[in-house]
TrEMBL record:
S-Me-THD-like C-terminal domain mapped to chain residues: 172-356
Highest taxon above the source species: Bacteria
Record domain S-Me-THD N-terminal: where: 14-169
The protein's name: DUF917 domain-containing protein
Pfam family of the protein (one): S-Me-THD_N
Transmembrane segments annotated in the record for this chain: none
InterPro entries membership: S-Me-THD-like_C (IPR048350), S-Me-THD_C_sf (IPR024071), S-Me-THD_N (IPR010318), S-Me-THD_N_sf (IPR027479)
Length: 362
């Protein structure tokens, strides 16, 4: 590893900001971060802060470990990791590649998956990379940027809280999604995993950089935002306000390793008389009004608590919540033809094309 000047650290002071920022950029997905935050808090309390490194700080042949949880977010609320999964994944990769892991990286920047790798990095004495492979959260394993560049997600290492471990080597990433999803469902609906292991040199092309520090800045801005958290959020990332309202109906079901459902939001204040429909598969996919899309994937659609500005994950949507529906621009890689083929509205079965939220409402 190249010697570099020590930069940001994740400590007990800014860990809550990271957790909060992850709920905003997850687009409703990634799982409730509270359990991951508690695990990271304990690890930092025992072992000290975790260094955050830019990808450029690593040598080309350094091995990185993208990791997180896989499965239905509703299950993750009660089916808690035991804390040793990161070690098991790391040891599996080190045995496979014959070298030590140099850094841990969240494979997605959202929910629990933005903070749980902090705990695993602390226990391993490793830095956390300021990058991920989504720039948000998506529900399926081929929906990571390396897939767009023809890079394999195998070997993928999946382990549950009993430390039952399976290594997958599949012909392509679509088969990886199918087989891992079935495995996770059998293990109870959620498990921990390592995906798309690669060297730092290989990661320079697909990595979306700066996402960890951006989430921390977002969380810190919300905590400072006082009575106007939306303005504070808009200073960190451009957002489009789609509507303000009250959740009047929520339908949610867990099956096959996903949470699918929809929520109806009745407009309030200036939006009184409007009715919004939000549809999700782990993550928020579309917001509709009168059957017409107001925003769609891959843009980041987030429900914010009207009073605090905190992001609301899909398993946390409840009747009566007062919310703001907002959307953030997608990371540019997802708006390429290859990106839209993988994560655009038609990839989720919708019969309409993606239009950037800034274009729709500009």
């Amino acid at each position: 590893m190249t010697a570099v000047e020590v930069g940001m650290q994740i400590d007990l002071d800014n860990l809550p900001a990271l957790s909060l920022g992850c709920t905003v950029f997850a687009g409703g997905g990634g799982g409730d971060p509270r359990i991951g935050e508690l695990m990271a808090m304990e690890a930092i309390h025992r072992l000290g802060p975790v260094e955050v490194l830019p990808l450029e700080a690593l040598d080309d042949d350094d091995l990185i470990m993208p990791c997180g949880m896989i499965g239905a977010p509703t299950v993750m609320v009660e089916k808690i990791p035991n804390g040793a999964e990161g070690r098991v994944i790391r040891e599996a990769y080190e045995g496979r590649f014959g070298r030590h892991v140099a850094a841990v990286m969240p494979f997605e920047m959202g929910g629990i998956n933005g903070v749980l790798p902090v705990a695993w990095a602390a226990y391993a004495g490793l830095p956390l990379l300021d990058a991920d492979f989504m720039g948000r959260a998506f529900p399926e394993l081929q929906m990571l940027t390396p897939h767009l560049y023809g890079m394999s997600g195998s070997p993928a290492v999946i382990t549950d809280e009993r430390l039952q471990t399976i290594v997958f080597n599949t012909r392509d990433n679509i088969w990886l999604e199918r087989l891992v999803r079935n495995c996770v469902a059998t293990l109870g609906g959620s498990a921990c995993g390592g995906l798309y292991p690669m060297t730092a040199g290989a990661a320079r092309r697909p990595a979306i950089t700066g996402t960890v520090t951006r989430a921390i800045r977002m969380g810190e801005a919300i905590r400072r935002g006082g009575e106007d958290p939306l303005s504070a959020i808009g200073q960190v990332a451009p957002l489009t306000r789609l509507g303000q309202g009250k959740v009047v109906d929520i339908e949610r079901r867990t099956s096959g390793g996903f949470v699918r459902g929809s929520a109806l939001v009745e407009g309030l204040a200036a939006d009184k008389g409007r009715l919004f429909r939000l549809e999700f598969q782990n993550e928020n996919l579309v917001v509709l009004e009168d059957g017409e899309p107001l925003a769609t994937v891959p843009d980041i659609i987030t429900l914010l608590d009207l009073h605090t500005g905190h992001g609301i994950v899909t398993e946390g949507i409840r009747y009566g919540q007062r919310i703001e529906i907002v959307a953030f621009p997608s990371p540019e890689v997802w708006t390429s033809p290859e990106g839209l083929s993988a994560v655009g509205p038609r990839a989720f079965g919708y019969d309409f094309d993606y239009v950037a939220v800034g274009v729709r409402h500009g």
